[in-house]
Design brief:
Two copies of one chain form a homodimer. The first copy, chain A, folds into two domains: about 1-205 and about 325-405, Aminopeptidase (3-Layer(aba) Sandwich); about 210-320, Alpha-Beta Plaits (2-Layer Sandwich), CATH 3.30.70. Helices cover about 35% and strands about 25% of the residues of chain A. The first copy, chain A, contains twelve helices and 15 strands. Chain A has helices spanning about 1-10, 30-45, 90-110, 135-140, 145-150, 160-165, 190-195, 235-245, 290-310, 330-340, 355-360, 385-405; strands spanning about 50, 60, 70-75, 115-120, 180-185, 200-205, 205-215, 220, 255-265, 270-275, 275-285, 310-320, 325, 345-350, 365-370. In chain A, the strands form three sheets. In chain A, strands 1, 2, 3, 4, 5, 6, 13, 14 and 15 form a nine-stranded mixed sheet that branches. Chains A and B meet through strand 8, helix 8, strand 9, strand 10 and strand 11 of A and strand 8, helix 8, strand 9, strand 10 and strand 11 of B.
Chain lengths: ~425, ~425
């Protein structure tokens, strides 16, 4: 049973495999198609129903109780460019094997479940090719507009609709009715590893937001134009990047992270001083106040840089995502399952976004982490051990089993945001 | 006569015109074709011979002395992306009108010239689309290999050969035999304007070199990866860019310029810390020693940045161009012509590269500058007055006339580099 899972996990890692043990399987590419075809085959082999909806989400559905809603397990099979084998794929493959076990367990015990069990492969969680990220689950949860997302283009001008159609996964099936959702994922940080704990029960997601920064200088000759006569957008942008990096130093350790990951310059010629730099800064913290304060400091510093270089710098907020709390009943369920299985559990926040953050808006949702070696992710060196993956699979199977039997749906106390602000996507 | 020149100049500025008074006429584009077609028409209307060689250089040849070599006037009609109307185009159009005047003057005076007169539109001086710059004249002068240059690709993967063929200017004509070369160009700096001088006689070109810098960090998640666990290539690269900018402060004012104009990052995703940044730094100074010293300082600083971020940074020298001295006889000729015409002249160095730098390697070469307003160039705001252009045209006509009559070819004292180092392209 464990071997079947490991065999499948390591087989899926061959789709889009890179030479340094990673995968490059961006959303709706030929490599993504390979993993989707594998998901379809697995589903058919179990005799489950396969549905693909109109944003490319794939559902493997095992109907146990005719007409009842589904408990969904899952994550995503797409990856970042030169990403890791574990991010997303672990959750989908563990979901498939957990659903299989749950089916067998119900048959063996003769227990009558309350819900059906299904597994989902969400479209484009990574957002590396098509922004924003967490696209498929957000559309499913009604947080993003399907028609707008289908028109989103990659850097080559290919739309989501065209890309999905090209690989044969622009479906038209309705998604299932959902009574609950559970996802397991690698931590992508080093807290579990540092503390030697098997499983994280995710209690809330960090407050995150992005800043769209446009630095407008003046194009000039790199050779002939005197230094004093230049308004170099790249020099000013470099200062912005360093300020974004340094802003975290003013806060509690590990309470905030910041970065610039995307940047383009124009005209990008070796002998022309740049006229325009466009970049995206990413701020994430344990609470809203920290992000708001970091943003305030940055806006001040950016205004100073603009003044110093006699340059215009336009800054816009976007992709603001408020803290999302996962339901207390789900946390307690994970802790109970951990105790029963002899698996150590601690509560943990997630700095990264996940499909479960979107699903948590519409259904009782459980999110679990297994340890990441060295805490690195979104890179080829990303790693988790077979042992930890199998421990997580056992926990997910048990959590899913109890959810199918109605564990979470009677008494969901808290869910979603705690203050009035809503998720802005 | 002056009006004909101005009419032509402002007409050519409509090819690839941008909304802010500039031009976007990169090498071998549809816009470049328009200016080339105009050059061809002008040539045919004069009854001159048109030749296009196998790297796209165009020669308009007026044979006055059967079989004799040519004095060539010229520059380039291609521009930077969103570049100015004057850079290059002024020299070609002034060259055409000067050649016309020289022909008439010879007819009127009955003087028997020693050489023929021709005008050249060099291919791809700018290098914005196809690197390196100064391509057509360097191939003509034997400093770059034609076959290698024909294979150079733009960012879309189109080769020089394909692009020239697509616009119908991949020729097969032999270039003319050259006895001398004269070029007039905008200064692209503000020395002439500041001193109120009409004409610069260019005595030498700055020592220039580029540094190819590859910053190799580690890709990771912008949200989940703790700041301490990152090896952010973009943060390190931003520090490199600021060091490149600041290095000039350690030298005499206006003796050195530096910049980074081209940069790419990978994977360039808003939620991924960059694993690799590639950038090109450009160093130019009045002498070799200054560039060598600035490079030494930079390499030390870059090594420190690499150490601080636990990142590899690879630096390679390329496009090293030694100081080129223009012949003393040519400088004296310009000064004599200036005195005869009542045009003020000063000797001036060029910080930018020009086709004349390549031609100076194979023939007695004269390079002249007219004032640039505000010293800006390679941008839409680049400007020179009609009055200054007409003064330059008079000077070029007279210099060209005297060269056709043998002014420079008897007594060329000094030409080319003064030390042993050769031009590395």
């Amino acid at each position: 049973m464990d071997n079947d899972f490991l065999t499948d996990f390591h087989h899926v890692a061959t789709f889009g495999a890179t030479k340094n043990n990673g995968v490059d399987r961006q959303a709706a590419t030929a490599e993504d198609k390979l993993s989707r075809d594998w998901f379809s085959r697995f589903t058919r082999e179990q005799g489950w129903q396969l549905r693909t909806d109109s944003i490319g989400n794939m559902f493997a559905l095992n109907e146990l109780v005719p007409g009842a809603p589904y408990i969904l397990l899952g994550s995503h099979l797409d990856s970042q460019p030169l990403g890791g084998r574990f991010d997303g794929a672990y959750g989908v493959i563990a979901g498939l094997h957990a659903a299989k076990r749950i089916g067998h367990q119900l048959t063996e015990t003769g227990v009558q479940p309350r819900y059906n069990i299904g597994v989902v492969n969400w479209f484009n969680e990574e957002g590396g090719r098509f922004a924003p990220s967490i696209m498929g689950s957000s559309v499913f949860a009604g947080l993003m507009e399907r028609d707008r997302m289908l028109q989103v283009q990659d850097l080559e001008g290919t739309s989501v609709a065209q890309a999905l159609d090209a690989i044969g996964y622009l479906g038209s099936d309705p998604g299932p009715e959902v009574a609950g959702y559970a996802e397991i994922h690698i931590e992508q940080g080093r807290i579990l590893e540092r503390e030697g704990i098997d499983l994280g029960a995710v209690d809330y997601s960090w407050y995150t937001q992005k800043l769209d920064v446009e630095v407008l200088g003046e194009q000039s000759h790199t050779g002939a134009t005197a230094m004093a006569d230049r308004h170099d957008a790249l020099v000013a942008a470099s200062k912005v990047i360093l300020k974004v990096h340094d802003v975290v130093a003013g806060f509690e350790p590990e309470s905030i992270v910041s970065s610039v990951g995307r940047m383009t310059l124009e005209p990008n010629s070796p002998i022309v001083v740049a006229r325009r730099v466009h970049l995206v800064a990413d701020l994430r913290a344990v609470d809203r106040e920290t992000v708001v304060e970091a943003r305030r400091v940055l806006l001040e510093q950016i205004a100073e840089i603009a003044k110093e270089h006699e340059i215009r710098i336009l800054v816009n907020d976007f992709d603001v995502r408020d803290i999302q709390y996962y339901p207390e009943a789900g946390l307690e369920l994970v802790e109970k399952v951990g105790a029963d299985l002899g698996v150590s559990v601690r509560r943990i926040r997630t700095m990264a976004g996940h499909d479960s953050v979107a699903m948590n808006r519409i259904a009782p949702t459980v999110m679990m982490f297994i340890p990441s070696v060295d805490g690195v992710s979104h890179c080829e060196r990303e790693f988790s051990t077979d042992r930890d993956m199998l421990t997580g699979l056992r926990a997910l199977s048990e959590v899913g089993y109890r959810m199918v039997c109605g564990a979470l749906t009677a008494d969901v106390a808290e869910s979603g945001t705690r203050d009035e602000e809503s998720l802005v996507l």
